[in-house]
Specification:
- With about 180 residues, this protein is of the alpha+beta class.
- It has a single domain, classed as Jelly Rolls, CATH 2.60.120.
- Helix content is about 25%, strand content about 35%.
- The protein is built from four helices and ten strands.
- α1 (about 5-15) runs antiparallel to α2 (about 20-30).
- The mean pLDDT is about 95.
- Bound molecules: fe (ii) ion (FE2).
- Fe (ii) ion (FE2) binds near residues 77 and 129.
Length: about 180
């Protein structure tokens, strides 16, 4: 498989009547070659889903390799769309939150992801992702929009107050979240 093949496979799936489910089904087929996918995406630098990690963006589809190093935890955030995550190597914990009408959060459930785990996050939920263990958690993340261009929210990890996601203000929140004992 090449990057172009993967982009084509996901672009076709996202054009279906249920894009998130169709993309999930395609991602299931990648589980047999996690090492091959990881090797193919090895050229992408960066951490935490920043712009360097995106390898395709369209109005209805974003493809990113996301790498969370040891000790890294995100603040709660949403994606402005659905998200499917396939873990390629390492281990990460996801804590999922329901969003109330006033954008306060209610903790829903948590999941530990290991290589081959595939998680689907609906558009109306928020999450915290964190690396477990010494090795970086690396995943293929697929989103149903231009995830680096759409309006999104981030929540202060201490107060759980919602703010528009602004990458210039995100890092201090991520550093505070990473210093906590667990997801808020
Ligand atoms: Fe996320």
């Amino acid at each position: 498989m090449t990057i172009a093949d993967l982009v084509q496979q996901m672009s076709k799936a996202v054009a279906s009547s249920d894009p998130q489910a169709a993309v999930r089904a395609e991602m299931e087929t990648l589980k047999g070659d996690l090492a091959g996918i990881a090797k193919m995406l090895d050229y992408l630098p960066g951490t935490g889903g920043n712009a360097n990690q995106a390898f395709f963006r369209a109005p209805n589809l974003s493809l990113l390799k996301v790498s969370f190093p040891n000790g890294r935890r995100t603040p709660p955030h949403n994606h402005g769309t659905w998200a499917n995550i396939l873990v390629l190597s390492g281990s990460e914990k996801n804590t999922l939150y329901r969003r109330n009408a006033d954008e306060t959060l209610e903790r829903d459930h948590e999941i530990v992801l290991t290589p081959g785990s595939l998680v689907t996050i609906p558009a109306n939920m928020a999450h915290v992702a964190e690396c477990l263990g010494d090795e970086p958690a690396i995943g293929l993340h697929v989103y149903g929009a231009n995830v680096l261009g759409i309006d999104r929210l981030m929540w202060d990890p201490d107060t759980l107050q919602a703010h528009p996601l602004d990458w210039r203000k995100y890092e201090p929140l991520a550093l505070r979240a990473s210093a906590m004992n667990g997801a808020p």
